[in-house]
Design goal:
Elements lengths: L2 H10 L42 E7 L6 H11 L4 E4 L1 H6 L1 H10 L2 E4 L16 H19 L5 E2 L9 H8 L2 E2 L4 E2 L11 H11 L9 E5 L16 H16 L3 E2 L22 E5 L5 E6 L5 E3 L2 E3 L5 E7 L9 E6 L5 E6 L5 E8 L5 E8 L8 E6 L5 E4 L11 E4 L7 E4 L11 E4 L5 E6 L5 E8 L7 E3 L12 E4 L5 E6 L5 E8 L8 E4 L1
Parallel strand pairs: 1-2, 1-7, 1-8, 2-3, 4-5, 6-7
Antiparallel strand pairs: 9-10, 9-29, 10-11, 10-12, 13-14, 14-15, 15-16, 17-18, 18-19, 19-20, 21-22, 22-23, 23-24, 25-26, 26-27, 27-28
Helix pairs in contact: 2-4, 2-8, 5-6, 7-8
The structure holds zinc ion.
The site of zinc ion has 6 residues, from loops.
């Protein structure tokens, strides 16, 4: 039988199953609650939140659009948090990109639905008109991402009735202090245009907290002959802008004051590059530190006595300390323990977090599977092949487990895959008994969106794991060990497929347990 069809039939039949098993409460997954906005600013904001002596807010208007994925990729590579003032119309056109903005951890701002200037609206910008434009966009963005838009940028920077509207909508109005004028770029790549954007973006004039205005798309209504929708010059300028601000001591902040992207800084030693931890039969624990380019920086010894463990995996921020935690199961009694890390290649604390986890043949973290900002755990029950989601609570405990699948009996490996298909939500990969590699795409709210076969012949690998973006291209990869001890990187292409495969090590058959972190 075609394994793809078999798995499809089994999973579809149980995708919404909510049968309560003895002693376990089953709860339907619910979308993440929308966060509450801070009180609206009384005036227009034209400086970045001053969370450090020097901060800078990069802002991108008018998207999403075809150039946004390149911008998001650069921001991931530099771990820079930005603010995107999207129009509702473009969010409706590009829902996947909208979710990606939010799930990467950027601030999703509001830029009206239609992007009409006051002169383009009969009667101009009245408070009811602006309230309607903002509410429609906000309602859609909550449905798409679970996030409330707390910041509003008026199209064109017009201020008519904007502050009065903010009191109704509970949002803060954001202008800018540095205008890159990148909307003026020509409809083709031009080094002079790139240089001009960089020059304007970095002309801070002594500002300690600038807001930089850029555009990832076009939403204004001039004909393309007057204002192009081409943004490759903005894309090319962005790394130079980021490097300039970083070299001059600025911290990148979203308009909410937050820094850094969700899912980053999830490595073991704090360099934001994916790593692998592995035990040897003598109980020693080793950290194989990724170099972010498909290779290794080193392999320090980081523990001993680990022969007591028969399973281990990383869960990002499970303890609530902002760093990944290594969870491991004691073979003697099936108890689950959490070793929280200090984010710098060392350990913070160790305590028991569960009992009876030996009912599972595999346990792993898919990342934040429920879109509440806390990583979760999935277990495959050995007795009946069902899959169980344990939603992380953010303090080293879980909410009630939920059954999220069945038919996984005989799977050789099952693992978190990061956002393998690029829709903004974490996914799961599994290797069937016959070696089919299946991609189960998460829907961001504790369930599934779709599944497809993405490989064959994977039955020969002794271990398969994810270490996040191991190659440094911004997309999660898969690592797999062969019986001859060679370790291979299968580079994800960010859209559910593959960019290539590379041997990245040997001698891995001398290791016992492997756990990827990244
Ligand atoms: Zn605009």
């Amino acid at each position: 039988m075609d394994p793809r069809r078999l798995v499809h039939r089994l999973l579809v039949g149980t995708a919404t199953l909510t049968v309560a098993l003895t002693g376990l409460t089953v709860v339907n997954p619910s979308p993440a609650a929308a966060q509450v906005c801070p009180p609206p600013a009384t005036g227009f904001l034209s400086s970045a939140p001053a969370t450090a002596p020097r901060t800078v807010a990069l802002t991108f208007d008018d998207g999403p659009g075809p150039f946004l994925p390149q911008i998001l990729k650069i921001l991931r590579q530099y771990n820079v948090r930005a603010t995107f003032f999207d129009t509702g119309a473009h969010d409706a056109t590009y829902p996947g990109m909208t979710r990606q903005i939010a799930s990467d951890g950027h601030v999703l701002g509001n830029h009206t639905w239609d992007h009409n200037y006051p002169s383009q609206v009969p009667g101009g910008w009245t408070v009811p008109y602006l309230v309607d434009q903002i509410y429609r966009t906000a309602a859609q963005d909550i449905a798409l991402t679970g996030q409330t838009t707390c910041y509003f940028r008026p199209p064109g920077g017009f201020t008519d009735n904007v502050l009065a509207t903010m009191q109704h909508t509970g949002t803060s109005a954001v202008l800018w202090s540095i205008d890159t004028l990148d909307w003026q770029q020509p409809p083709y790549f031009s080094q002079a245009a790139v240089d001009a954007i960089v020059s304007r973006a970095t002309n801070v004039g002594g500002q300690a907290h600038p807001i930089v205005l850029m555009h990832d798309a076009k939403a204004s209504h001039e004909p393309d002959s007057q204002v192009t929708r081409f943004r490759a010059n903005t894309v090319a300028a962005l790394p130079r802008i980021i490097e300039w601000y970083r070299a001059n001591g600025y911290v990148f902040v979203g308009m909410d004051g937050g820094s850094g992207l969700r899912g980053f800084n999830t490595d073991f030693n704090g360099d934001q590059l994916g790593d692998v931890l592995a035990t040897r039969p003598d109980g020693s624990l080793w950290a194989y530190l990724g170099n972010g380019a498909g290779g290794w920086l080193g392999q320090p010894l980081v523990g001993s006595g680990w022969q007591i463990a028969d399973a281990m995996y990383f869960a990002v921020n499970f303890s609530g300390n902002g760093h990944p935690a290594l969870l491991y199961r004691k073979s003697s009694d099936g108890s689950l323990w959490m070793y929280s890390t200090n984010g710098a290649g060392g350990w913070a604390s160790n305590r028991q977090v569960g009992t009876g986890w030996n009912i599972f043949s595999t346990i792993f973290s898919p990342g934040d599977f429920t879109s509440d900002g806390i990583s979760d755990t999935i277990g495959l029950r050995a007795s009946d092949g069902t899959l169980w989601l344990y939603p992380g609570a953010g303090n080293g405990t879980w909410a009630a487990p939920q059954q999220i699948g069945a038919g996984f009996t005989g799977y050789r490996h099952i693992l978190g895959a990061g956002d393998f298909d690029g829709d903004g939500y974490p996914d799961v990969l599994g290797v069937t008994a016959s070696g089919a590699l299946m991609l189960f795409s998460g829907n961001g709210f504790g369930g599934w969106r779709s599944q497809q076969q993405v490989g064959a012949g994977w039955q020969n690998f002794t271990d398969v794991l994810s270490a996040g973006d191991f190659s440094g291209d911004g997309y999660p990869d898969v690592l797999a060990a062969r019986p001859d001890g060679t370790l291979w990187e299968y580079a994800g292409n960010g859209t559910g497929g593959w960019a290539g495969q590379f041997q990245i090590g040997g001698g891995w058959n001398a290791l016992t347990l492997l756990a990827g972190v990244g």
